[in-house]
Amino acid sequence: MLSTDGLKFYLTNLPFVLLLSSFCLKSGNLYAQQTSLPCNITTPWTPDTFDVDVEFSSTGLSCWDDNFLCIIPGDHTPDNVIDNDLNNFATGQIVLGGSLTLSVKDPVHDYDAGNFAGFVISSGLLDLTVFSSITLRTYLNNFPQETFQGFDLIGLNSTLFDDPFPIGFVTSADFDEVEITFSAGIAVGLYNVHYAIMEGFCAGPALECNQATFMNSPTYPMTIDYANTGSIGLNLGNVDNPENAISSSTSDYASLNSLASVLDSLSIAIEEQVTDYPAGTFVAFDIENVSILNVALLEYMVITTYLNGVQQEQVTDDDLFLGGSILNSTGRQTIGFVTGTAVDKIKFTLAQPVGVSLGTTRVYGAIFQEFCAGPALECNVETQMNSPLFPVTIDYFNTGSSGIGI
Questions:
Q1: DSSP states of 53-75
Q2: pLDDT for 232-273, tens place per residue?
């Protein structure tokens, strides 16, 4: 029971008490859900967009450029990772073993599962061996969420080490922190971390009836699945600039480069992060091969579809549709098929046998098409069955020449 004086104090200070109560209720959950992100656009973790802190550590004979024992030319301290200047960076050095770890954390917000998270990094001394010892992790309230090795998160291509490039993954758990670790064994090298990045995905517009659509970012939430992109076999080929296959441009391209007449397989996989497209969708790639023309290339092509990471269909050779480019560009062709299952990811594979050199195949992008019923036919009136008014395609399996085939 409050005394008279106590009740008087409580009523006099009621506004302050209510304000304090409101603060306490809010502070019970210190983390708000993520701030809005631009749809399907990579966004740096910088102070003008996010609340950010940086933490870093090293082991063995390794150090970041905050340590006076670390002899690194220039000012490349870890604080550079979380400022608004995207041209500077933090540099760490590994000398005869040890490791470097750096993390960027938002102390205010949690971020949704399904976002892309990672870093932009560079180093003239990076090689393929080093990538096997790069690790990315996400955390939530200081608890580890997911871990990926760097080798699974990049596209191996000839220009990989020339410029800064992104390394990251699409998360499957909420997070508020992303961390990168370099653990290069006995390698001696400098490793640059430019800034952390995030991307939120939003659904694109519905496909237009009976019209082929380029599935390009940022209109659609497209990503490269690097676990299914690259070379399998003798690994003498490479995939250059895979991100070009999902860029907003329809004139740049990823290159699948077969470098020798040996058994090798080159693939690029493109994934839609939000929408599952139903069975009956036409899925294809817009390609161009500078060495082998037209149907001769079909023998070496495979298209595979996936849904939620599970393989659905694999189609090759004569079962593939091969037609002209939807942009009517000389040399470019559309290759694909109508799916029998739902799909959210497609992979293009060029399977090169021994003794055949397939040269370079350019992949301009993925193409999806939805089929919708056309208008009812008018009675006793001849009607041309043309696309896009009607859902018509060429059945190339039953089109062509038989016999001598001249």
A1: EEEEEEESSEEETTSTT---SS-
A2: 765 567 788 888 999 999 999 999 887 655 456 889 999 999
pTM over 0.85: no
The closest alpha carbon to 303, from 253, 259, 345, 333, belongs to 345
Cα separation, 66 vs 76, in Å, equals: 8
Neighbours of 200 (CB within 10 A): 21
Q: Return all residues near 80 (Cβ < 8 A) that are at least 6 apart.
A: 88, 89, 90
Output the CA angle 226-113-135, nearest 5 degrees.
45
Q: Tell me the two tokens of residue 122.
A: 């560079």
Beta carbons of 391 and 372 less than 8 angstroms apart: yes
Do the Cβ atoms of 151 and 93 come closer than 8 Å? no
At 113-162, the pLDDT tens digits run 999 999 998 875 555 555 667 899 999 999 999 999 876 676 544 455 56
Residues listed for the chain: 406
Q: φ and ψ at 256, to 5 degrees?
A: -100, 105
The H or E element that residue 130 is part of is: helix 128-131
